[in-house]
Amino acid sequence: MKNYKISVIKGDGIGPEIVDEAIKVLNSVSKKCDFTLDYKEYLMGGIAIDTTGHPLPQETVDGVLDSDACLFGSIGGEKWDTLPRELRPETGLLKFREEMGVYANLRPAIVYDELVNASTLKPEVIQGCDIMVVRELIGGIYFGQPRANDGFKAYNTMVYTKPEIIRIGKQAFELAMKRDKRVCSVDKANVLEVSQLWRDTMNELSKDYPEVTLSHMYVDNAAMQLVRNPKQFDVIVTGNIFGDILSDTASMVVGSIGLLPSASTGDKTAIYEPIHGSAPDIAGMGIANPIATILSAAMMLRYSLNEIKAADLIEDAIKAVLKDGYRTKDLASFDAKEVLNTTAMGDLIAAYISK
Ligand SMILES: NC(=O)C1=CN([C@@H]2O[C@H](COP(=O)(O)OP(=O)(O)OC[C@H]3O[C@@H](n4cnc5c(N)ncnc54)[C@H](O)[C@@H]3O)[C@@H](O)[C@H]2O)C=CC1
Ligand SMILES: CC(C)CC(=O)C(=O)O
Ligand SMILES: [Mg+2]
């Protein structure tokens, strides 16, 4: 029987609540599909600061690199917001992504038929929507030097090199080849030099993919188009900050940020994490939607472990649960037959799998 080593980082806020549900579901599907999972927990973010004095302990870096894949919850919270920048949970997360070399963050935004009434957008606008946001994750303005804040003047730097743009562009074109063969590259080339290089490079790269239609859009327009007519998009490729913002926007096309999973991939390892943060406003209340994290676990099975049947079983169980009218609080006003807490939603998805 196959056995996989999974590193687990629960993090802060709702992180532990949602990761526990994903593990519950993984255990249910692994029994059904005849493989086992060995989990090892590592600290990161606020809890790591409180325990070790540092947001990213070396043990976490080594442990994740030694595993087959990493399941990640979320980090951060007000408690740590006043720390110097280099000691903050978010700085630990960025350093973690950089050290793991996970340059491509794949954020699918799929509207399930079962949830077509779960969005504030009209059903006809969103039905059948299936977007893949390919966000560059270890470059751009979140990482660029110089950066500083002296209390009077503050600045950050948006940097991309051509090899970095080619690397992420290739991921987008390759994904598009397996999908509807359309890539929309999002930038701000009317204002930013870095975006002009991004656009020129995408144009050059597109010559290697003649079957794929490449279009370009400014990020402000892209945000508007995402809510106006999301079905016009197939693959969106963009830089770190634009992808961060546009994928949160896309979550409202789907219905809730608690539904969107992601895979952060590179050449060394992969990290599977919901797109949302630690949601301190609802932490400990038992109302967080665990589906984004459970779907991230399904992506882990599909992409890192090649357990395709298991991934399908999870996704089918989620659709069935939603079709039967079970909702967490974030989706309570959309065709809910019964509103479940976080644990009950995890229990139910696990039970549908083992049916
Ligand atoms: N990957 C990570 O670990 C990320 C961490 N953060 C950190 O998280 C903290 C909170 O950031 P926010 O801007 O509030 O973003 P957030 O994504 O944590 O929350 C935004 C809103 O969405 C809701 N929400 C998020 N996930 C949900 C879920 N699973 N179910 C139901 N509702 C959910 C929250 O209750 C909140 O109202 C900050 O410290 C931030 O830096 C933010 C984004 C990503
Ligand atoms: C620390 C932030 C860059 C995290 C975030 O918002 C994200 O990755 O979506
Ligand atoms: Mg974000």
TrEMBL record:
GO molecular-function term, one example from the UniProt record: 3-isopropylmalate dehydrogenase activity
Site (described: Important for catalysis): Y142, K188
Subunit organization: Homodimer.
Cofactors: Mn(2+); Mg(2+)
Subcellular location: Cytoplasm
Gene (name only): leuB
Protein name: 3-isopropylmalate dehydrogenase
GO biological process: L-leucine biosynthetic process
Family (UniProt): Belongs to the isocitrate and isopropylmalate dehydrogenases family. LeuB type 1 subfamily.
Cofactor binding summary note: Binds 1 Mg(2+) or Mn(2+) ion per subunit.
SUPFAM superfamilies named in the record: Isocitrate/Isopropylmalate dehydrogenase-like
Catalytic activity from the UniProt record: (2R,3S)-3-isopropylmalate + NAD(+) = 4-methyl-2-oxopentanoate + CO2 + NADH
Binding sites annotated in the UniProt record for substrate: R97, R107, R135, D220
Major location (coarse): cytoplasm
Domain of life: Bacteria
Organism this protein belongs to: Arcobacter acticola
EC numbers on record: 1.1.1.85
UniProt binding sites for NAD(+): 77-90, 277-289
Residues that coordinate or bind Mg(2+): D220, D244, D248
Pathway: Amino-acid biosynthesis; L-leucine biosynthesis; L-leucine from 3-methyl-2-oxobutanoate: step 3/4
Domain Isopropylmalate dehydrogenase-like: residue ranges: 5-349
Reported function: Catalyzes the oxidation of 3-carboxy-2-hydroxy-4-methylpentanoate (3-isopropylmalate) to 3-carboxy-4-methyl-2-oxopentanoate. The product decarboxylates to 4-methyl-2 oxopentanoate.
The entry's keywords: Amino-acid biosynthesis, Branched-chain amino acid biosynthesis, Cytoplasm, Leucine biosynthesis, Magnesium, Manganese, Metal-binding, NAD, Oxidoreductase
Pfam families the UniProt entry points to: Iso_dh
One GO term describing the cellular component: cytosol
